[in-house]
């Protein structure tokens, strides 16, 4: 039997934003329920996407379901627009939805992110879409979905507090530095995705809608605007965020999250903004850090 | 002065160009054709169809070529295509009992109606590298029956005739078969969904789990009641027409494993079943699947759950190689923001440790 | 037009983009309770369902969703229209409905009769689409809760007097409960189950 060999013209043509309409409707229904139950993980029939599971398929599906021709999309990974996976996802949406893209936080209507929340305060017209690898905050305490689902249903979060308290007993600190659990609107304990805990306070009563997509684990959840998002802590060990000793070496920004860059093999280090757009804008406005490229000096 | 590295876009595009170059390889050799892959690497094509859940040999062969022979990558490519296809309807269950068998063996009876039919098997070949395959030596045509074979009786039906094996599935009346590619997973799962997950599951993972049950991690005393490979008709009910139409024939491999069961207060002693059904010719997968299916039915039979192969959540959550490869390989994506957070904490804890150590030294010195 | 032609006509002219636009309005309104959104999509469902409610139906309902209709909607050409344009199946049981549609002037059933979801899966509850007279001119209600900066005020006309009571009962079952999409003309307003509603003191 000779196979019916496909021709390039006979192969798939894809719908606007890649997903078929039925899939979009299914995701849209899940998003509305997620918004109505802040912090609760809505199961959804995640589809295979043309990029691997674990590489942002949940975020991509959420973005594809909400995206329209009037949107302006920004994609960041580790806070940067130019990391390879961010470049790849941005190019995907340019190709399948012909959408306008930007690196400027302020210009974007939808921001898809992995591991960071932009430094600039988000506004009411914006939606932040998080890529989530493990949506279940209790997963590493209890690997079984059947058990964690019961714990959420009964609001039984004692295990999480025990874990955090064991950290304190052992290390003198809560040893969770990213994916730091939060409680949403006094009810659901939620995983903020692996953002550094530095970003947790930005989620609290944010003006922007925050949507979370976990493709492999098939969950969507949401934090509506102006919603209480409180990092778990103890009276004698209050939640605190990371602080950096020095400002950004390029733009001089303080109170921002910094990446450590190794400069040489002799222990040379510098710290620069993880949010590349924030850094570039500050530099353009004349802010200078101690290692900034100085045009006048160069000339 | 420091200038940040830019240019992810160019790097990606150059990497893909290099990939295309390496895929084509030595240009002085002819490119391998899709027809050749279908004809000569048929079992690779079958595995891709099975685990991608899409029966299309040409597209599976294209995926194999595009993936440079990386099977999981090929499965992934074909699945990503499958997910975009519209649904026109749901076919009727295929009737494997009337399969036109090309291979059919039973380990439980020496001879049986329809006989043992070896078919195109590697069994009893001596695994010696064959120099004749280095070139293109003529190959004798196979000896085949003149007339198409009659449907052959299922071995499980022989046992069922005596009431010695449990019924074939026990889902409630009116149960509509689920589809885990359209509905989110929920545990515990009904057996139909579990079988779908296993049919799509990674052959290697199921093989290892099935093997573990044979080595005592949830022993089920399996006998191959029957393995059959052949073609079945796929039919679609047309309510408008009042009858069903045939969409064509597909090749499948079915395994009915017959397992021991002592019986209970409610049930007389009888054998139990493990079931495997896979697209194409894939005996290893169908057999492994039926072992794991039986092991996963532990709770149904009131057996103690003591081994990984019996643990539904563990098995089903980790059987999908497209999910698994994505998440394992995602570790190579940048994680420097999280790592920075950990680095910061470790440095702080070290500082505190050294301060404490210094204090102890000072106290000791005083 | 006969009932039959009614059933086939009147879907989205541009399904992909119109459904996206309607959904974004729904999403914004669900995320910001009290905010009034406008549905620009032009669909013409059979009377008495209003056009905006029809657009919501085609945006969210399909083969995978069961829909409950009031007796009057059920007796209209709407079931055929929904079946043809959305593939949605009807249910008589409010408890099984993913969506429920109530036309203007119809009696709003007690919300607790609809699917509430379970404690484990509170998302499996009914979303009601209810058409009312207007968003102004009724008894002033003050909204607070997620999605609302401080408070929002609405004065919907055409909801039953008992509505604030129904709603507070719905609120008490959290995380279980129904969510509401109110429609008036071409405008919509959403009340997710988290919204706290209080009658404004005169």
TrEMBL record, chain A:
Top EC class of this enzyme: lyase
Taxonomy, superkingdom: Bacteria
Keywords linked to the UniProt accession: 4Fe-4S, Iron, Iron-sulfur, Lyase, Metal-binding, S-adenosyl-L-methionine
Transmembrane segment boundaries: none
InterPro entries: PhnJ
Record carries keyword 4Fe-4S: yes
Protein name: Alpha-D-ribose 1-methylphosphonate 5-phosphate C-P lyase
Organism: Shinella lacus
From TrEMBL, chain B:
Keywords: Coiled coil, Lyase
A Pfam family assignment: PhnI
Coiled-coil ranges from the UniProt annotation: 336-363
Organism superkingdom: Bacteria
InterPro entries assigned to the protein according to its UniProt record, in alphabetical order: PhnI (IPR008773)
GO molecular function, one term: lyase activity
The protein's name: Carbon-phosphorus lyase complex subunit PhnI
Species this chain originates from: Shinella lacus
Taxonomy of the source species: Bacteria, Pseudomonadati, Pseudomonadota, Alphaproteobacteria, Hyphomicrobiales
UniProtKB/TrEMBL annotation, chain C:
SUPFAM superfamilies attached to this UniProt entry: PhnH-like
Extent of the signal sequence: none
An example Gene Ontology molecular-function term: lyase activity
Keyword RNA-binding: no
Keywords, sorted A to Z: Lyase
Alphabetized Pfam families for the sequence: PhnH
Gene3D superfamilies documented for this protein: Bacterial phosphonate metabolism protein PhnH (3.40.50.11310)
Keyword Hydrolase part of the UniProt annotation: no
Protein name: Phosphonate C-P lyase system protein PhnH
